[in-house]
Amino acid sequence: MKPTDVAIVGAGPAGLAAAQAARNEGCTVTIIDDQDTPGGQFFRQPSALLGQTGRDRFSSKPAIAQRLFRVLDDPAVDYRPSTTVWNIPDSGVLALACEGSASRLHAKTTIVAAGAHDRCVPFPGWTLPGVMTAGGAQNLLKGQRVLPGQRTLVTGNGPLTLVVAASILRAGGHLAAVTEAAPVSSRLPGLIAGLLAVPSLLMLAASYRARLVMAGVPLLNGHTIVEARGADKVEEVVVARLRRDGVPEVSHSQTYAVDSVVVGYGLQCSSELTRLAGCELSYRQLSGGWIPRRGHWLESTLPGLFVGGDSAMISGGETALTEGALAGLGAAKQARGALSAAGARRADQLRSKLIRLARFRTTLEQLFEVPASFAALRRPDTIICRCEDVTAGQIEELCRDSNLSLSDIKTRTRASMGRCQGRNCLAGIAEMVAAIQDKSIAELGWPRARAPARLVPISALLCESIKPPVMPADPHLPRAQPTAQARPRPAARPQS
Amino acid sequence: MSDVNRLRVRLDVERGASFDIFVDGVTVPAHAGESVAAAMLVAGKTGTRRSPRLAQLRSYFCGMGVCWECLVRIDDTYLERACMQRVRPGMRVKTETQGCE
What's the confidence (pLDDT) of residue A486? Predict the structure, then answer.
């Protein structure tokens, strides 16, 4: 089978921009995405079946999205929705699973543009129905045109909180309050110069804020949720001011009656594929966790593997679009041997744009920086691992007793061993253990990433023709049994 | 329930006629193109799975297929994420199955 020039994991802004850039250089492209509609989280669209009217009031860049989606109709682009990349077993090989069948894709170059997911900050009651992530609420609004509830508290840290709150208002929802953990207002004057690096994004944030103020929604800076209460559904929430050391002042708390809570404490890079493939990474909590080391063309330390957008570092949609295009050009250069003159010029422009965007991002990180990791919000009975019901107390007790490694804590408690494969909890547990044992994340030893990178049905794996491992001879078995005819192995089902 | 539909936003979409899906035997109206999770949420059927040790009711959380909290059984398929599946007329959704029964 002829390998595709560029395989792209993820059809969000970075993946689509990469596809377009690679196509402009004449490459063949395969885009794999685990969702059934393109756009990722940033450009998430309602399904065509929902009766779109053509307008999109929930996207900050609807025209750019529509232009990018056109690349998927290009006959030289093989777009595979609802497909999971569950392993990168070898350089230039992707293991795919799609609706009960598996296949392998061979590619000259690969771009990981897998995006990000919400970082979880556990607090009492965060597992109650009605409490959802900022990404979850955005998906309801963008992809379903459904409000998260009748009366909502939006709480968290970072720019996404403001975006979600403004979207809920636009959709006609009611907000009890919006809380931002960082004392943003008092910091803003000192940081305005850095934010002016990208005036359009600053204006957008100002318009979101104005929408909240006009609607009379209480906007509480330096506050956080401390508890959600309710029987089998959230009924009320407690909000308190955060002291400078990150401890909430529960004596001065407010309670709001709500039926839904949107929690957005920032995002985490989807790093499972870069970890699994063995890219060189470093841990930076503020930037989204495991950050791959990348070169001039956004190539990782592995030959032929590029990383772009939020799966490389949390930087937002604008950066994802720019990085995706640059990675697409880098991959095209490698796959085809050279770039066109226009492509080379474009790469230079993209790099200077990335410098401005990086300045904006570092300023945002300063603006929204908060002390500690909200450790003061959890109580011993607060659930840390949602899948397996492991509490903060269980983990704290284990790490005080001895200098157990993260992997030891994982195997003893089952924390991070559930269906989410640690995406919800592992970073939080690592930070908790690191703080208690006074170690850096690097010293802690992160559990090894293993295939499958995402849950895939066993039926899909059964059609993989993987060589059985060579086992040493078992001395207890009778020897020299004439081998019965080897069972025919089901052939890998070709993917159309 | 008079609250049904209040959460559906009528911006940029013109939903067609609704059809029925069944959540634990209860009729829930849904529109083509919606996710199972969205149809359930609008109808007030928020609970999806029970947690394994503490048997807490859980629900739609991440909305993008990462957290697996919205785990339900759909027709004869166990272990489906309600946020990743689109509604089909007559679909039977079962909650609190722990993936099996």
Answer: 45
Residue in B13, B54, B71 nearest the CB of A50:
B13
Report cis status (omega within 30 of 0) of the bond before A472: no
At A334, the amino acid letter reads Q
Please report the residues numbered 16 through 55 in chain B whose beta carbons come closer than 8 angstroms to any beta carbon of chain A: 16, 31-35, 38, 41-42, 46-48, 51-54
**E strand segments, A157-247:** 174-180, 219-221, 223-229, 236-242
SS3 (DSSP) at A56: coil
DSSP 3-state of A432:
helix
For chain A, say whether B4 makes contact (Cβ under 8 Å): no
Q: Are strands A29-32 and A4-9 parallel, antiparallel or unpaired?
A: parallel
Return d(Cα A285, Cα A303) in angstroms, integer. Answer: 26
Cα–Cα distances in Å, from A371 out to A79, A252, A263, A368, B46?
43, 19, 18, 10, 34
**pTM, two decimal places:** 0.92
Chain B residues whose beta carbon lies within 8 Å of the beta carbon of residue A383? 51, 54, 56
Q: Which residue has the tokens 């560029």?
A: A6
Q: What was the pLDDT predicted at B98?
A: 66
Sign of CA dihedral A296, A301, A306, A307: negative
What distance in Å separates the CA atoms of residue A62 and residue A165, rounded to the nearest whole number? 19
pLDDT at A177: 98
What does each C-alpha distance from A396 to A231, A399, B45, B77 come to in angstroms? 27, 5, 35, 38
Sequence-distant (≥ 6) Cβ neighbours of residue A267 within 8 angstroms = A116, A117, A118, A119, A135, A158, A160, A288, A310, A314
- Which residues have a Cβ under 8 Å from the Cβ of A472 and sit 6 or more positions away? none
Q: Which residues of chain A have pLDDT under 50?
A: 480-492, 494-496
How long is chain A? 496
- Measured CA to CA in angstroms, residue A164 lies from A26, A136, A263, A365 at distances of 39, 10, 10, 19
**Could B33 and A46 be called an inter-chain contact, meaning their C-beta atoms sit closer than 8 Å?**
yes
Q: Is A138 on the interface with B (CB under 8 A)?
A: yes
What is the model's pLDDT at position A55? 87
Q: Which of A50, A141, A417 is the mutation pick for testing B, counting most B CBs within 10 A?
A: A50
Mind listing the domains of chain B with CATH numbers? Answer: 14-94 (3.10.20.440)
> CB count, 10 Å around CB of A375?
18
Q: How far apart are CA A71 and CA A11, in angstroms?
A: 11
